[in-house]
Design a protein that fits this description.
about 80 residues, two-stranded antiparallel sheet, about 55% helix, 3 helices, mainly alpha, single chain
Length: about 80
């Protein structure tokens, strides 16, 4: 029986959650801050394309803004206009 954890917009299988932990460890080794890693992790958990803000030079607050824009686009089916 598979176990799932409901996170963000998608359900993540427990095995996948452990894989995400491993990916986050790589970002830590590259020197990303805890806040940057948090935004990257949340993007992965939300099922969005993190490549748009996966850059050590982007401030965590800007990462947050980009991530939320992408989440809104995903929820709205690609339309970034808010209700």
């Amino acid at each position: 029986m598979k176990r799932y954890i409901a996170i963000g917009v998608i359900n993540i299988e427990l095995r996948d959650y452990l894989i995400i932990d491993s990916i986050m460890e790589r970002y830590k080794k590259k020197g990303y801050s805890k806040k940057q890693i948090s935004q990257i992790r949340r993007g992965i958990e939300d099922g969005i394309d993190i490549s748009q803000y996966d850059d050590i030079n982007i401030h965590p607050d800007e990462m947050f803004d980009i991530r939320w824009k992408l989440v809104i686009e995903k929820v709205n089916g690609g339309d970034s206009h808010e209700c």
